[in-house]
Amino acid sequence: MRSMRGGLLLALALLTLGCATGRPLGAVRLDDGYRPFAAAPTAIEVPAVTGTPTPLDVPAGARTRVVETARALVGQRRVEVGGKRFGDDCTGLVRGVYSQLGVDLMTAGQPQDNGVTAIWRFAARHGRLYDGGRPVAGDLVFFRETYDLNRDGAVNDGLTHIGLVDDVEPDGTVLVIHRVARGVVRYRMNLATPSVARDTAGKVLNDGLRLPRAGSPQRLTGELFVAFGTLLPNERLATR
């Protein structure tokens, strides 16, 4: 009985962290007919970036609009943008935010992709993926291995989570807006110290993104980071 109770508590705890992209939490409630891509039954690789990107045609002020829309959703459980409800998972958040520009982030997906991988392909096709330097508010943030997508117990799940850059603090800590099971939240990520949760003063540098399991410690945002993706022209944003 004790082991069953422990397993239940761990399962509930996992729901507070992970993005269920590919298998969204609860019923999928979308009004555009979209359904998640099928999860691959075996190892999933991060797609290689090839070809020359075709820039998106977006209106002036696109980056500001994306950031302001994402910030307005923080604290909400439902992802509803412009009167349209998107899936209650990490891809639903970024899809909803970018939909304000008339951009559908899912159009580059392939049949066996999960939602995050589909958006990765879109970013490679229409923007730039990068893992160094200072990100810009409104850029996408890709993570890997945040949960066992194909449920085989191995570390082979490729891209599994996505968020949006909100801001960058003076010490380089990136604020990321993303959708987890408890709603839309901000997490911190510091790529200079990816395996450090807090500094000596107690400030959070990297939030936990994957809970510990048997033989594996908690994994932090900086440890599971893959790349940033920029799709929009740079512009000066209003200060918060």
List the helices and strands and how they pair.
Layout: H1 2-15, H2 62-73, E1 79-81, E2 84-86, H3 90-99, H4 115-126, E3 128-130, E4 140-144, E5 159-168, E6 174-180, E7 183-189, E8 208-210, E9 219-220, H5 221-224, E10 225-230
Antiparallel strand pairs: 1-2, 3-10, 4-5, 4-10, 5-6, 6-7, 8-9
Helix pairs in contact: 2-3
Strand order of the largest sheet: 3-10-4-5-6-7
Contiguous low-pLDDT stretches (5 residues minimum) are: 1-18, 20-36
Helix proportion of residues, in percent? Answer: 10-25%
- Which structural class matches the secondary elements? alpha+beta
* Count of alpha/pi helices: 5
Main sheet attributes: strand count, strand direction, barrel closure: 6 strands, antiparallel
Q: CA-to-CA gap between the ends?
A: 50 Å
* Overall pLDDT: 82
**Which oligomerization state do the chains in this entry correspond to?**
single chain
Shape: globular
List the helices and strands in order: HHEEHHEEEEEEEHE
Strand fraction equals: 15-25%
- Total domains: 1
Kindly provide the radius of gyration, computed on alpha-carbon positions and rounded to a whole number of angstroms. Answer: 17 Å
Q: Strand tally, please?
A: 10
Task: Walk me through this protein's architecture.
- This protein is of the alpha+beta class.
- The protein has one domain (2-230).
- The chain is built from five helices and ten strands; from the N terminus they run ααββααβββββββαβ.
- The protein has helices at 2-15, 62-73, 90-99, 115-126, 221-224, and strands at residues 79-81, 84-86, 128-130, 140-144, 159-168, 174-180, 183-189, 208-210, 219-220, 225-230.
- The strands form three sheets. A six-stranded antiparallel sheet has the order 3-10-4-5-6-7.
- A hairpin with an 8-residue loop joins β8 and β9.
- The longest helix has 14 residues, at 2-15.
- The N and C termini lie far apart (50 Å).
- The model is unreliable at 1-18 and 20-36 (pLDDT under 50).
